[in-house]
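Run: sequence + adenosine-5'-triphosphate -> complex structure.
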Amino acid sequence: MKNHPDYQEELDRLTFTKAYMDSVIAAQETDQETLKQRQQETVEALDFKDSSLKYQDMLAHSNFMKMSKEQLENLRKLRKKPYFARINYHRKEKPEEEIFYIGKVSLFDRETQQPIILDWRSPLANVYYEGRLGDVSYEAHGDTYEGNVSLKRQYTIEDGELQDFRDIDITTKDDLLQESLSQNADHRLNEIVSTIQEEQNRVIRADLRKPIIVQGAAGSGKTTIALHRVSYFLYTLKDIFHPEEMLILAPNRLFIDYMKEVLPELGVDKARSTTYIDFVKLVTNHPFHVRTQHETLMNVLENDGEEDTKLEVASLKGSASFQTILNQYVNVIKKEFFVDEDLTIGDFRVVNGKKIKRMFVDDYAYLPIYKRKEKIRQVLMSDVRRKKKVIVEKLTKKYDDELDKALYGIKDADKRKRRVSFLLDKKEEKLREVEKEAKKAVSTYMKKFPNYNLSQYFKRMYKDEAIFEKVVDSSLTKTQKDKLLHHTITNLKRKTIDAEDLASLLYLQAILYGIESDFKAKKVVMDEAQDYSVMEFVSLRRSLNTELFTIVGDLAQGIYHYRGLPSWDILQKKLFTSPNYLTLQKTYRTTIDIMSVANELLDHMTEPLPKAEPVVRHGEKPVFFSTKQKGWEMQLVERYQSLHSKGMNTFAFIGKSKQECQLIYDHLQPFFPNNIQLLGEEDEMESDQIIILPIYLSKGLEFDCVSLVSIDEVYHYNELDMKLLYVAMTRPLHCLSFYGEHSSDFLLDYIEDTKYMK
Ligand SMILES: Nc1ncnc2c1ncn2[C@@H]1O[C@H](COP(=O)(O)OP(=O)(O)OP(=O)(O)O)[C@@H](O)[C@H]1O
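>> structure
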């Protein structure tokens, strides 16, 4: 590097950028006098070849910037690595080529508006990710700019010191990527702005006003890219969109913790990240205990005997046809709101019943049902207030006329007196009555409308036989109806619902009551999307009323196949209007050797799924160890120690189910007395621990070394087990091993035997 002709220039540039950053930081912290003095010292201390007035000017301008605490904190962090790339770009309209340094956030010279660092999310930075060397174009604010890129350079900067830089073009392989992939896994996601690949960049920058569905192979960067798209979205639409309006849905809390650490760096930490289960709980405030899909899956794997019914009912409740059933139910509920009696006060009609019905059916049809009821109440209140005045006037006039008649018409003084006092009493009584009736007219009338809460409605659908029969109608067979009814009623007796019922609750909440504005996300990001049921998508789409979804998933990892999506078709054709559909085929996590074993499983799955293409990186072949020989545990310990001494940091032992993991833990804990953790859904992964976890919990995570262990449970040749194996086999970065009685216990007999070692 030191011999490179640009070495000094690069060194100067980095020194300058850091000095500028220091100056900006100091400007926020120091008083103006001290600041000037410091800047003077900095300029004197730096012996720049190119030490120009411009440089001094820039330092002087830096104190004009006003930064938030957060921005300042970010700037301090960024000083360690102010930028990671540079482009030399000549825009057609400009007289000469310009140099742009690209980093995680932008930094501008306040006075000249010249970028000192260009944000990776800015339109021009797209040229670095997408454009080849030579002629390129980019779009900004609807306009296309053409130009020429003559240089793309990548930097390795550590702790503010320039370690290396290299130029890239189409022929050179991406060294920075290779370097980044060969590193070890931490228990957190990496931020990858400097090595985003072209196909990934396309996902990040795809039209932000359209929904996007991404089918991506295991390890292709779906989670990472989805988060970078969030960051890009918030950056590009920062003037009209707040991070709080963003909802990120992940499969479990463990995954959220894992993901969260990458968020602050990307500036998306204010987005709400949660699970679907927790989101529905928050929005609907339902009182039930939820049996999660993970529990159902465990029941299936541990054979609790009732799994067939559970799966059948779950699949039904998650299916598109269940929306029809719920819609029928909503129609039944709506009809109970068709109130068409007149609202009266005494003998007076205040509001025509037909008008009241029309308000419900037509005028306020755009509102949720109970919001319509509230609107009607408000309209009736104001009508009553208005009409009461008229009634009072009419009554007053009527009695005053009669009083006049009595006063001037009745000659007999006694008779007249009696009549007048009678009329005065009557008038007072009538007016009092009107007053009283007007006060309660609306509340009495409103009692004609139903008043139930969400959980009452949910229970009623199953508990009221007539309603149930009516809503399921002919769409289900008798056996299906019986199973659905019996299963749900048994659940309800235990105050429990299935995870699949949450979609019904959210759907009904939206139609009956609406969603509180605090929870109304405008943009939704769904990871591991293949595991959501159609009804879960429908419920989110209906309740949030937005098209702005980023949906990423991998059908090959659909271990909840009884309820999850069989394909992306239904989302593409029915739920969203012309979404973008993109695929990510390259996989960055795993070595070629591991991926070629995992890839073979894809051939045995029902969906025709393209194989993942690993980025060229070799490692050791996966290894099978038999547990039939005594002392296999010691062999496992030795392997662990050897890998650890070679620099592998994170290790996982993965079992098929929770029960199996408990067995693995009991078995191995004596060999690793201080550094093994049996991971539960609500636990945090401890650092420096070997993690034992069931496959469903390992989704989305990665470890340097993964061992699949089978003590009691083996894998069979069926869809579910193959998908489970595929998920587990695609978790390691560097090494994969199997510990079981026979290699066939992991379906390795279906894999070409040269691909793994025994
Ligand atoms: N462009 C890239 N540069 C460097 N590393 C990358 C890149 N893309 C992805 N990676 C790395 O590849 C690994 C897998 O990424 P990620 O977990 O986002 O993939 P995924 O598609 O969500 O995987 P899975 O579906 O298997 O859970 C991570 O370690 C990530 O940092």
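>> summary
Residues 177, 180-181, 190, 192, 195-197, 200, 216, 218-224, 554, 557, 588-589, 700, 702, 730 surround adenosine-5'-triphosphate (CB under 6 Å). Confidence is low (pLDDT under 50) at residues 49-53.
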